[in-house]
# Entry
Amino acid sequence: MLSQLRQIVEEVGDAKSLTAAMDTLVQQTKLTMKVDCCSIFITDPNVQELNLMASEGLASTAVGATRLKFGEGIVGLVHQKGEPLNLANVSDHPHYKYLPASQEELFNSFLGTPIIHKRQVLGVLVVQQKKPRLFSELEESFLVTLAMHLASVLANSGLRLELDKLNQPAASIHLQGCPASSGIAIAEAYVVRPILTLAEVNIEKSYSSSKEILLFEMIVKKCSDEFSNLALTLKEQLSKEAFALFDIYSHVLKDKTFLNAIRGQINEAHLTASSAIKVVAESYIKQFEAMSDRYLSERASDIRDVAQRLLYHLTQQVEDDVNLPDKLILVASEVTLSMLASIPTEKLQGIVSVHGGVSSHVAILARALGIPAVMGLSLSLDNINRKTLIIDGYAGCIILFPDQPLLTHYQVLLDEENELKNLVELGKSKDAVTLDGQRISILLNTGLNANQHGAVTGHFDGIGLYRSELPFMLTDSFPTELDQTESYGKLLDQYSEFPVTMRTLDVGGDKQLSYFPIVEENPFLGWRGIRLTLDHPEIFLVQIRAMLSASLKHRNLRIMLPMISAIEEVNEAKRLITQAWKEIKYEFGLTADDFPLPAIGVMIEVPSSIFIIPQLAQSVDFISIGSNDLIQYLLAIDRNNSRVASLFDSYHPAVIQSLKLIIDNSRSFDLEVSICGELAGDPIGALILLGLGYNKLSMNANNMGKIKYLINAVPLHELENCCDLALKANSGTEIRAIFVNYLDRKGLGGFTRAGK
Ligand code: PEP
Ligand code: MG
# Structure
């Protein structure tokens, strides 16, 4: 039964149109379940009706011509109740409504089940039999399971667009995805499909291996040059962190094992260059995809992307830049870095990717470039190329075929946004001081090496979070103490007048080291952060020694421990830090007065740590809230999973109450507290934090301008009043509304407003 079910779902998914899909569905289901009739009704919410879209058994004239009001008849009842109904004699049911011209009088027994996607009833699937009988439990569960699979096939395939079109009175279609990068874009959709996909390449023998090798070497060089050129173009606009993503491609293009495997296929198996690329790339992809950890399995898409680019050059189908629209929104099933490479940045207004999440490489890049992006949506790429598209990166939605009033509305928002950007830029060099004189310390979150922030302009008070794991992720083995000392030294040098808070290695979860893979069922609840480094003191000690040696020159280091959940972890980490400190002191012939132990702090990101603040206050010098993880653990919502992304509510009352508890406890124990999660760089998040009493916010460079602008535009006592209300609110939606209304009243609505 399972394989038949899978087959039906696959065939429906492969259908070229919605009608064909529905016809296939009813035919195959009727056949598989050995019933006399199978029909599907599709919901039309605009007129509140169910439309008989396909049937194998009912009169063909009824198909397309039969409509039921919501709640009307048995099918309407299934739709209304949202649950299956199994009846031996359908006409006995008080809700039964005879459908003239359908010939349904032929059938007595009825089994109907709703097709539901994300709480929305898309339609009703029905099977009927002449013989009066109740359908068996097996039949019922088959139909229900089929409907569940069908719902995601319908929602996630190209069929969705057709379905939406059916359900839309106006031309415009709103599609919801994940907000990967905020902002508004209005431009032509530029749909990019791979010219020759890896799967489409036929395996062919070559006539001349030497010629194929030459060709291959040439395109490898072409691709490398292309990425270097792009890197040069983007260098000004990108932080080193985002810029380093291109390194991953260069890595693949320089990877001798990968290249030699392709050369081997050309020279020894006598394949053409394109066949050799296919064979090798697919085997790499397969191996990476089989790996359960996210970081490694994501490498599969790097390999696919590079192989695709090699094929692109090999087939010599050069895109014609001249034909590109002046302003475009890049749309693809999976937007890749190499697609971005082929589009001049001045033309690129926005990014829409059917697949991928907010933490994908492209999302990171989009944010670094300040380009609105929406990812992870059900969108068919057919019929939208060169059509006007709106991206609302605040709400994480796109609008296809927008009508004139919508276009005008969004154009006004876009103009406002541009005006705001100019204002924010001007305020960057100012201090952050509220209208009633409260100075707020603004700190910078940073990730890679010291040079990367040459581009960070404006005033800030130090580094609130240096994510030390990123350099570990870009190497092929654990970096040596010397390498680390050099790398940390650069950062400490660059910010010599500022305190620099370096976080110790925080791998595990979604951050994996290719040379130290960790395979776990629940990586976010597993061997992560301090748990891993305490189990490997040799790694921890080397890192601490490197940090300490690097800090000798300016003494501006602070050490922060990630993922702390219990005081024992702090004690053990402090023991190791003290050991490393004594060693360095001894090696450099220093006394404790010459070289005091740097300040040590912990991240508050595991809920249990909130409740040990009194103990932490005895042991550490500061705490910093990692709201990204704290929210994920408080709400039990994977921060990277697009399926539950809409539940990741940063303003959830539990979050606000926790923040209140943390600040109150820290104050009463005289413990320095700051926040370095994304919440600090979010306009509403920052206002909430200020209103609760926080005065140290650490954020990425992109958010600094707007957060400072906001701080300079509001008095603290008003934020305190808003927080009093927020602390009594029942839901995240209410809390958000309090601040959205407040900002609107202050004429600052542009900072949060989505286009709704
Ligand atoms: C956090 O969890 O909020 C945080 C700052 O750390 P990371 O995002 O690196 O997990
Ligand atoms: Mg974290």
User: Anything to note?
Assistant: The CA atoms of residues 182 and 393 lie 4 Å apart. The pocket of magnesium ion (ligand 2) is lined by residues 605, 626, 628-629 (CB under 6 Å). The chain is about 45% helix and 15% strand.
